[in-house]
Amino acid sequence: MRTTRPALAAMLAAIAALPLVASAHVGADGAAHHDIGFAQGFLHPFTGMDHLAAMVAVGLWSALIARSARDTLWAPVGFAAMLLAGALVGLAAVQVPAVEPMIAASLLVVGLLVVTRLRLPGPVAAAVVGVFAVFHGVAHGYELSGDHGAGMAIGGMVLATALLHAGGIAIGWALRQRTVWLPRVTGAAVALFGAGLLAQLA
């Protein structure tokens, strides 16, 4: 069946954007800490394509493998919950090893999950993505630690994460019965992005 034009355009835009940007995290430029709030936290996941791609891909995978609408919630809820936990760890300045490599690995793994449409039980899917979400959260927490209003910023970040998951789910539901190759190409692009980041960190 044919893919709807809006869904096709969204997917192709995401694919085209992946190789153009890397880990552009707020705070990575060494700027002084300052007052932040909900809005800044909300924008935070959009400032690094590694975070954005992972969150959308989790939603996409969830929709592609779901047997019902309720099944789509396991992985996104698991990711968002563990992202919050990781962010709190980062805000507390707890040193966690291999944060950036694990973020890159998350892209590789989630991208391959999209490509293969590997179906896992809901709790297992939540646990798999949740492990990686901790490291995404820690990275955000490090970048926001020391800033006034970090608690509100974390709230905005979690909301943005949920919306990115929802966007991925919407795209997945739109495409799951229409085309096979486009989600696979998108998953492959995410996986290659992760592999490229891992190679840079090696």
From TrEMBL:
Question: Could you tell me which Pfam families the record lists for this protein?
Answer: HupE_UreJ
Q: Does the keyword RNA-binding apply?
A: no
Which keywords are on file for this protein? Membrane, Signal, Transmembrane, Transmembrane helix
Q: Which InterPro entries match?
A: HupE_UreJ (IPR007038)
Task: Give the stretches traversing the membrane.
Answer: 48-66, 73-92, 98-116, 123-142, 154-175, 182-201
Which superkingdom does the taxonomy of this entry point to?
A: Bacteria
Signal peptide extent:
1-24
UniProt-recorded name of the protein: Urease accessory protein UreJ
